[in-house]
Each structure stands twice: as C-alpha cells, then as structure tokens.
C-alpha cells in the first residue's frame, strides 16, 4: 500500500497545486499545541476533492476515458470531477438536484460539466446517473466510496507529512469518508507514531456511531452548518476508517462557528465551515493535543459569502 | 536613496514576516493581465503598517527608545506601533477616540499598548498626544507622514520586486500616503520600467485632487467602506507621491465591494476593503494594464466579520 500511495502521488502531482502549509503563533497559543494547516482551500477549484477526482480519472482505461465520467453531487465533487475531466479532455456528466443553488450549477458549468437536473432525492439522483451511464457508456465515480478517490485524497496528508514528518496527529473533518480514509492510509504509511483523528458535527454523528457499532450508521436529520459533511460512510472507506482512525471527536455547531471565525480572523484565510470542524475538534480536546504537533487538513474554501454565520 | 532602502530592509527584516506573493489563473483571466498579490494581510498584526512602525522605532536613539513612543490612531497603526514597541521592549502610548470600536481597543491592549481615550475630534487627539509627550518624553510617530515610516512601508514592494523584478506596475491603495510613497520609492529604485499607481475611493478623492492641484487637498466627507483610506496626505509624503506616482485611479464603492468579493471568493483570503481598492483600480482600467505584469499590495486583513458588505 505504501508504494501505491507513492505512485498515486506521482500521478496526481502534475494536475494539482502543492498547497501551502500555514502556521500561526497566535493560533498555537489559543490551541496550546503546534498547528500546521494544510490549505486545500488554495487547491484548484477550492477543495481537496480535485485530488481524488484526478486520480480516479487517470486510472480509467483509454476506452473508458473516451466515454467520460458521471457522478451525482451538488457539492465540491461535482466541480472537481468537471475540472479534472476538462483538464484531461474527457466529458463529465453531473447529476444535480434541481434544488441545488444557482451558484453551484454555474461553477460546474464554468468547469465544463454537463448538468442533468433531477428531483432532490437520492433515488432520483441514482436513477438519473444510471440512465446517463446506459446512454453514454460513461463510468460512474462515487465522490467518496471509491478506492482511487480515497487514495487521491490521501495525497494532501502525504504532502503535509513530507514537510512535517514528525507530526503527532493529523486531523480532518469526516463526511462521506473519502478524505479521512485517504488521510489515515497516508498517516499509517508515512507518519512516525502519528495518529489520524477526525472531527464530526454532533448534528451528523453517523461516523462516530459507526465506529462504535462497527457498521455503517446513517443520520435521520442533518442540521449542520458544515454542509459538506452531511453524507455517510461507504463500504469501501469504512473498513479503512475502522482500522486506522484513532478517534472521532464530536463538536457542536457553536464550536464549529467559533473555530471558523478564528481561522478567518487570525489566519486571514477563507475556509468552509466543514474545514473548521477539524480545528474545533482540537480545541474540544485540548488535553489530548497539548504541546503536540498537529496537522489540520483545511478541506476547502468554497463558501457562499451571502450566507455567513457571523 | 537606493542604499537607504536596502538598509531599511535589512533592519526591518528580522521583525516582520516575508509575506507570500499569491497568483491565480482565474483572477488573471478576469483582469486580463498577470497579477501578483503581495499579501500583507498575512503580516504580523495583519497589515503592512508593522513595517513602518518597526523602522521608525529602530531609528530612535537609545534615550528616545527608553521613553517610548506615542501616536493617535484608531486603526492598524495603533496596533502596529503597540506590537512593534512590545517586540523591542519599549512603551507605546496610544491615543484613541472614545468612539473607537471595542474590538480595536482590545487589539491594542493585546499588543501591550497603553490607551488614552479622548473625544473623537482631531483637535482632542492631538492635544492628548501632546500631553503624553510632555509628561513621558515619548516620541510622537505619525502613522503616514514620517520618512522612517514611509521607508518601512516601502519594504513590501521591495520584497515583491525581488521576487518579480520585471513588473510593469505596482498598485496600492492610497489613504494617508505612507504606503504609496514608500512603494513609489521602492519602484523607482528597484523596478525596471515599472510604474507606481494608486487606487482611491471616489468618496475620498483628496489624493487624486492633490495630484491635480499640486497642493494637499482634504475631504469634506469620507463615506467609504475602505475605512483605512479616510485620512489625507502629509507634507512629507506628498512631494514623493507627486514626483513618483504615475496615476491615481478613482473607484466607486460598488467597484470596491466587487473587487473585495472577487479576492475573498477566488483567492480564498481575508482582506480589508481598503486592499480591494487596488484591484478595483486595475479592473477599472483594463486597457492600461492589458497583458502587463501587475503587482498589487494587499494592505491588510483586519476586518470586522460582523460587518461585511456581502
């Protein structure tokens, strides 16, 4: 697996930014530990999802590439797959609920994705995606429950550990499970006594409960500001998470908004609420992280500035 | 003067961050030129003002240092002087209008500045500062009309031109005149056929009018979102500006807010409205800057997140 990750990194590298790692004395003082922020908000299309999308497409056969890729997503993966496909000159079909914000549809169109709208239910989304697969022969790529996607997402932590090899922890948010699974694999193979930890909103604590029960749990409601984390784990990423993730820390909506404000005000960077969940987790467990070297994957920076919680 | 600037840079260097220069393909497409953003929002205390404050203090005699420094300011210079003085172990007395926001007073206190409150008039501010000078022997430092401050502010453009020596333009906002004067000197001595341009809000067009009339003009009202630019030029920086600044471009409040939104959304960085004035100037004169290499000094990132214009 270690060699696989190396290979993935070499493949993905020409298509993504090597994002900067930011530090701040003030943030270290507040958190009581040494923080290293891996800024995927500066990644192409504004989120880590670009890494997994590129890797998944690169692993298709030439025949598959010609016919294109399809996914259903209203979030960052729709944009990532559109841009990754555009960069590689292949078609991307994106199924989006007709309730998706105009701004997100516009972003997908900018990156060249071909949008099919459907009713805002999982059933309608899957049906529309299957229909496109049948009509075009395009390959379906899941945003998080796909091993190539997972390994691609792991390249962010891989880069971080190249720069900071002696981190004690790497912390990410957990939603669909792609980022945390990829990060956990990178931490296991490239960290030295490094542990992988996730932050999760209390309002969508399915991953936390899944770790306890040993099976994939879902949420009845998903009332969190961290809108990127409303999805649940999948059968491909869950076994990796169960085996390699040290702990999932739950945080309240107030904690997420406070952490978000801290990052914006002190670090002067624009990040998504989902990204703040990782910092909120560290601030929630100060004793655990005290004086440790802690990497935080800032997952993305695509926010609607008209809808800020401040 | 070239050697002076070199010396200032060497003196200031240990006390400030060498801020990053960010680029963005998307922003280049929008602007129709090649943009290089020198990010002083990532500077210590969040703005370029740290550079001038440090240089001014370093140029005091040992006797003067012991007695400390005094200024009147409710903005970034109050914080900059407090932090610079703290770093050098000398007292900083800050006169602030009693109407100044609590958050700004708190920031000055965090950095160790000793606050004296006064009525919110220029007369009361000057009177309070003079009283402190008399009582403590502290040296008065003006936020922008002081040659050491001006030369210190110029170190941002100096660093930018070290990284990008063949820029065609460097653009800054203009308020009190310290940043643009320092930048103009750096551009003259370290640029190759490089011109220094300023953006200014139409609502406070005193610098624009001063360039036309050849004498320092003031504003009757100052109704702009770019709250760092409400001050007017001084007798030390104005001759430099008159001689070395190529053009002052006026921009509307709508243009400033649009440029601000572009920087936040596309660059994923938190900047002050004043910083967006420089980009707004470039977007206002696309023909002038077409296909050119344009440096933009992002002046700072201290914003009140509760009062955003989005």
TrEMBL record, chains A, B:
Q: Which residues form the Tryptophan synthase beta chain-like PALP domain?
A: 13-300
Is Iron among the key words of this record? no
Where would one find the signal peptide in this protein?
none
Which cofactors, if any, are listed as required?
pyridoxal 5'-phosphate
Which top-rank group of organisms is this from?
Answer: Bacteria
CDD domains to which the protein is assigned, alphabetical: Thr-dehyd (cd01562)
Which Pfam families does the record cross-reference, listed alphabetically? PALP
Does Secreted appear among the keywords? Answer: no
Q: Which InterPro entries match?
A: TrpB-like_PALP, TrpB-like_PALP_sf
Keywords from UniProt, A to Z, are: Pyridoxal phosphate
According to UniProt, the name of this protein is: Pyridoxal-phosphate dependent enzyme
Q: Which organism is it from?
A: Christiangramia antarctica
